[in-house]
Specification:
The complex is a heterotrimer of chains A (113), B (162) and C (94).
Chain A (H helix, E strand, L loop, with lengths): L7 H27 L3 H4 L4 H23 L7 H29 L9
Chain B lengths: L7 H14 L5 H13 L17 H27 L9 E6 L5 H13 L3 E7 L4 E6 L5 H19 L2
Antiparallel strand pairs in B: 1-3, 2-3
Helix pairs in contact in B: 1-2, 3-5, 4-5
Chain C lengths: L2 H29 L3 H26 L4 H25 L5
Classes of the chains: A mainly alpha (113), B mainly alpha (162), C mainly alpha (94).
Chain lengths: 113, 162, 94
Amino acid sequence: MTGVDLPVWAAWLVVALALSGAGFSLVGAIGLIRLRTFYERVHAPTLGATLGMTLIVAASILYFSVAEGRPVLRDLLIGLFLTVTTPVTLILLGRAATYRDRAEGNADAPPDP
Amino acid sequence: MSRFLPYPLLSLGLFATWLLLNAPVTPATAFLAALVGWLVPFVMPALRPETVRVRAPGVILRLAGHVLVDVVQSNIDVAKVILGLRRGTRRTGFVSIPLDLRSPYGLAVLSIILTATPGTLWIQYESNSGRLLLHVLDLTDGDGWVRRVKDRYERPLMEIFS
Amino acid sequence: MSAASILTWGLGLAQGMLVLAMVIAAWRVLRGPRAQDRVLGLDTVYLNGMLVIVVHGLRTGSGLSFEAALVICLLGFAATLALAKFLMQGEVIQ
């Protein structure tokens, strides 16, 4: 199925990086189930967006660099873009939840800073 | 900086991004990248960005090292919490931190750092009082978090964006 | 084992884990209980879908999936942002 031949050591390294990245991402998703309140759950997907993403991007960079025999760094752009956008989405989502909880006067609403 | 190259850092970033997207580098793509990097920043004055001066490259490197270590460490910590491997009772809650950092760029970088380390979430920043509300997943002691954010991240950021 | 079979099996397993993560996140989207939980689940679905495509690019050895991953990244960002803004005000553009 794979289009190019890699040395065996590179194949093992790519698989190890991709599997550990996918593992962190999966644990993050499991956190969506296991943690009880919304404010706890917000922390969970960050696992996939930081270390999970980094490891998979590293696997991709390693794979294409070895396969094409020159440094292929464009996947860094995915990492850069995700690093800059994740805080924006999570902060806005946290703000929205805070606003809704305070407006409804829920007991677990965040206190004033 | 000058009339010919108003935002050198932005120009450099655009140039590098264009080359990364169009690898392998040929003279034609390099020329286009240089053109994009030179011309696009001329639309920036319309957005009226605040001027930013970045200082202390040594501090930037040390902060980057700290953040890298903290991201990996907190990923493992949060994974332990999720998988139920963490022993003892876990408390979760909000921490209010008084910040002295006022530079918008510094605050933006601080928000990226705090969100990129799983286990801390930036909830609200009050720009009048300069107080920041954080949600912490594993809150063993609140004062420890206040000290950690102030010493480890805020002080270097104030040096960089002074 | 040859390099090709290591890659096929190992990356297939990684894809399976990421798809499982997508299913779990989709369950959170369906289950709620509140709107912000659903938006958080949707953001996780987007993120893991993007990672599945990156790993798929590794399995097939084609560079084309990079563009697809970048587009999903952009769409996920815009979608989550719009939904979060909607939760805050009830209006997306004011």
